[in-house]
Each structure stands twice: as C-alpha cells, then as structure tokens.
Write a structure and sequence with these properties.
Helices cover about 30% and strands about 30% of the residues. It is built from 2 helices and 4 strands. It is of the alpha+beta class and about 100 residues long. β1 and β2 form a beta hairpin. The longest helix has 20 residues. It has a 4-stranded antiparallel β-sheet with strand order 1-2-3-4, covered by helices on one side.
C-alpha cells in the first residue's frame, strides 16, 4: 500500500491518493479531493498496471497527474504543471519514504 498526500496551502486544496496492489497484478486507487466551497470528492478505479521503475515511483507519477488534473478542473485552466523534485523521484525508485 502506498499513500500520498499533497496540499496546496495558498488555495486550501488537498489531494490524498491511496494505492493498494498485489505487485504482480492490478492496483486499486482512490483519490480524495478537498477544496474550499466544494463537497469532498472521491474517485476510485482499478489500474491494470503502473509503468515505472518501481511501484512507489509509478504511484507518485499517477498522483502528480491526478493533482494536475484536479487543479485544472478546480481553477478552470487548461494548462497546469506539477513539479516533482529530482530527489523525490530518485528516492521513489527504491520505494523509500519521501
């Protein structure tokens, strides 16, 4: 199981992602979005496989993509980018805590 949480303090937006997997098979993911003036939103899906150098890294990249999409929807902008520190990406290759 991998749990990731991101908080954009300036906008009071939070995204929590939980990944549950049998490393040889599919991964179940739940994303919880919290934003001011909106009811909490939960999205769940099953991913057939997560590409990446490690399961932790694949989860981190999926979480970043979900955060990018959530911010684009919340603030109605087409182009949003989420930057991950190189150290965080490197540590995720080995399944380390970030």
């Amino acid at each position: 199981m991998v749990v990731l949480s991101s908080v954009l303090e300036s906008r009071a937006v939070t995204l929590v992602s939980c990944y549950l997997a049998d490393l040889g098979g599919p991964t179940a993911v739940s994303h919880l979005r919290l934003a001011p003036g909106q009811a909490p939103q939960v999205a769940q899906r099953v991913l057939g496989g997560l590409p990446g150098q490690s399961h932790a890294r694949a989860c981190l990249l999926d979480h970043a993509a979900e955060l990018r999409d959530a911010l684009g929807e919340l603030f109605e902008v087409e182009e949003v980018s989420v930057e991950l520190a190189e150290e965080t990406l490197e540590r995720s290759r080995f399944g380390c805590r970030f």
